[in-house]
């Protein structure tokens, strides 16, 4: 390797690491600002810049005010109910759909897969008028079960994750179970479904994060105060006369904690699920 090539390689490495450091800094600076703001009093926030340190990191008054005034406990309860129901139904429908598409050959199978892919390209906001009209005509507005139905649509990404996992499971498992007298439902629930654990965890995380952070549909279909979710609860401190960002940031940190704990506990399954789902056997 010539000196010119070595210099070019060194410059490339320097630029690569500088870009990574810059991207990391851009990603982490909002989190740092949110943490600093969450511990500031109203007077501190009004008299300081966003990067100034608070006088004390032991000031948890903003957190208690955020929980009480925004009724975040009720928001966590509603969000928890929605999460459990939506995730169970979505995983079951997504995995069973992938099972049918992978294991059974029938006319129009390719068209069904293409339609799912086509549906993923349509922007959700473009269909909201029609969905709202359907929800209104069925009297599903301002009901948690109506909101759940809107969110139960299985993600296309989850379907393809399950499809890739089924590609790695030998068909001989199905054939052996059927020869022993097992039904198709038995093959799926007793043989194949337990082997989908990495895919299930990956799907749960991807779908769970989107449902947990969802704001547009919850603000549109759940307008009663007792039906607020954790995402709409944070907007208690916004108004036409200004926003109370110290309370908002405290509420944001509270909402981050559950999803952060969940990810730290299941991060191995998530990474293995994504890696295995990306390789076709």
Outline:
With about 280 residues, the chain is mainly alpha-helical.
Structure description:
- The protein has 14 helices and no strands.
- The model is unreliable at 277-281 (pLDDT under 50).
- The longest helix is centred in the first third of the chain and has 36 residues, at 3-38.
- The chain is mostly helical and 281 residues long.
Secondary structure elements and pairings:
Elements: H1 3-38, H2 42-47, H3 61-69, H4 72-103, H5 109-121, H6 128-137, H7 144-151, H8 156-167, H9 171-179, H10 184-192, H11 197-213, H12 216-221, H13 230-233, H14 245-277
Please describe the structure with a list of short key phrases separated by commas or semicolons:
mainly alpha; 14 helices; disordered C terminus; 73% helix; 0% strand; 281 residues
How far from one another are the termini? 39 Å
Return the average pLDDT rounded to an integer.
84
- The helix count comes to 14
What series of H and E elements makes up the topology?
HHHHHHHHHHHHHH
**Biggest sheet statistics:** none
């Amino acid at each position: 390797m010539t000196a010119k090539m070595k210099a070019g390689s060194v410059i490339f490495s320097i630029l690569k690491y500088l870009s990574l450091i810059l991207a990391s800094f851009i990603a982490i600076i909002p989190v740092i600002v949110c943490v600093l703001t969450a511990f500031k009093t109203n007077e501190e926030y009004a008299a300081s810049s966003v990067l100034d340190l608070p006088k004390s990191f032991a000031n948890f008054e903003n957190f208690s005010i955020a929980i009480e005034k925004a009724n975040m406990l009720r928001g966590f309860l509603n969000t928890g109910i929605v999460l459990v129901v939506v995730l169970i139904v979505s995983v079951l429908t997504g995995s069973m759909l992938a099972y049918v598409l992978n294991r059974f050959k029938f006319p129009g199978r390719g068209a069904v897969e293409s339609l799912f892919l086509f549906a993923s390209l349509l922007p959700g906001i473009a269909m909201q008028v029609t969905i709202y009209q359907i929800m209104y005509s069925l009297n599903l507005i301002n009901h948690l079960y109506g909101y759940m139905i809107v969110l139960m649509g299985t993600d296309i990404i989850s379907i393809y994750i399950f499809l890739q996992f089924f590609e790695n499971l030998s068909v001989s498992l199905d054939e052996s179970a059927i020869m022993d007298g097992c039904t198709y439902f038995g093959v799926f629930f007793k043989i194949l479904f337990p082997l989908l654990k990495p895919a299930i965890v990956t799907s749960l995380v991807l779908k769970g994060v989107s449902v947990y952070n969802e704001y547009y549909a919850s603000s549109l279909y759940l307008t009663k105060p007792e039906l607020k979710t954790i995402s709409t609860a944070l907007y208690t401190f916004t108004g036409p006369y200004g926003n109370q960002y110290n309370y908002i940031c405290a509420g944001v940190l509270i909402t981050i904690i559950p999803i952060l704990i969940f990810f730290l506990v299941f991060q191995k399954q998530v990474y293995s699920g994504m890696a295995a789902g990306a390789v076709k056997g």
